[in-house]
Amino acid sequence: MSQSVTVTKNASLHDQLPDRIKSSGQLIVGVNVPYSPNEFKDSSGKIVGFDVDVMNKIGTVLGVTPVYKEADFDKIIPAIQQGTFDVGMSSFTDTREREKTVDFVTYFSAGVQWARPAGKNIDPNNACGLSVAVQSTTTEDTDELPAKSQACVDAGKKPINKVKFDDQASATNALMLGKVDAMSADSPVTAYAVKQSNGKLELAGDIFDSAPYGFPVQKGSPLGPVLQKAVQELIDSGAFAEVARSWGVENGVIKQSELNGAIS
């Protein structure tokens, strides 16, 4: 076993935190669960996951304690704007549209990836007429599947039957039970679902439309640059890659964290 990377407080970064966070010693984090493996609840009801492990290490670097508050996904960014949450942690894709309202600190590269029942020949690029599960309000629901379905219709083929679920666990379960032909989700989510399926599911096709995940913070907040430096410290030390490997999502590790690194 390789020795784990030790993470310690960076006093200089702690001193650059907004006064309110410094004085309370807490970082209020808005999160929506479940979205395994990034954020979900264990059997005792505790919020755990890849993102949580990363945020806890960020807390160590900054010398503050992350406090996780559950919220609907679409209410997290408005709550950051209002100052209710300091930061969001819910597998947010950093987009130019979202950057109009909040700043993002990038920490991971995720794309879209499909899963299918093991042994079934289902191709994401040739899915006209199939039923595909997605979680509501995700990129897959709002952008990816509508575009693919429209291309089917334009080619004179049957549209894709998009089957929406309130949470990712239900979408994965629908595929496990054979209620849909395939599932589309962010690449770390799909990889984890396949890993947990005991051979019932497999990856379908390559990762596409890769884009950065980011932690949203209030627009113009001094927290943004401090958070970016903390993430970069974890990347440079190897602590970040260690966390990613423990969740099976090492394919998405980036070399450089950016403030507002949207590519589209």
Name the CATH superfamily assignment of the largest domain.
Periplasmic binding protein-like II
Number of structural domains: 2
Specify the overall morphology. Answer: globular
* Rg computed from alpha carbons, rounded to a whole number of angstroms: 19 Å
Overall mean pLDDT stands at 95
Give me the CATH fold name of the largest domain. D-Maltodextrin-Binding Protein, domain 2
Low-confidence stretches: none
Question: Biggest β-sheet: count, sense, barrel?
Answer: 5 strands, mixed
**CATH architectural arrangement of the largest domain:** 3-Layer(aba) Sandwich
Structural class of the secondary elements? alpha/beta
Protein name: ABC transporter substrate-binding protein
Pfam family, one: SBP_bac_3
InterPro entries: Solute-binding_3/MltF_N
Keywords: Signal
What attributes does this structure have?
D-Maltodextrin-Binding Protein, domain 2; 10 strands; signal; five-stranded mixed β-sheet; three-stranded parallel β-sheet; alpha/beta; 2 domains; 9 helices; Solute-binding_3/MltF_N; single chain; 264 residues
Your description of this structure?
It holds the Pfam family SBP_bac_3. Keywords: Signal. InterPro entries: Solute-binding_3/MltF_N (IPR001638). This is ABC transporter substrate-binding protein. Residues 26-251 form the Solute-binding protein family 3/N-terminal domain. It is a single chain. The protein has helices at residues 11-15, 19-24, 50-62, 73-82, 139-154, 168-176, 187-196, 223-237, 239-246; strands spanning 26-31, 40-41, 47-48, 65-70, 87-88, 102-117, 131-135, 161-165, 182-186, 201-218. The chain is globular and about 60 Å long. The longest helix has 16 residues, at 139-154. The strands form three sheets. A five-stranded mixed beta sheet has the order 8-7-9-6-10, sandwiched between helices. The chain has a three-stranded parallel beta sheet with strand order 4-1-5, sandwiched between helices. Strands 2-3 form a two-stranded antiparallel sheet. The model has no long low-confidence stretch (mean pLDDT 95). Helix 3 packs across helix 8 (223-237) and helix 3 (50-62) runs antiparallel to helix 9. The chain folds into two domains: 11-110 and 212-252, Periplasmic binding protein-like II (D-Maltodextrin-Binding Protein, domain 2); 111-209, Periplasmic binding protein-like II (D-Maltodextrin-Binding Protein, domain 2). The chain starts with 10 loop residues before the first helix and ends in an 18-residue tail after the last helix. The protein has nine helices and ten strands. By secondary structure, the protein is an alpha/beta fold.
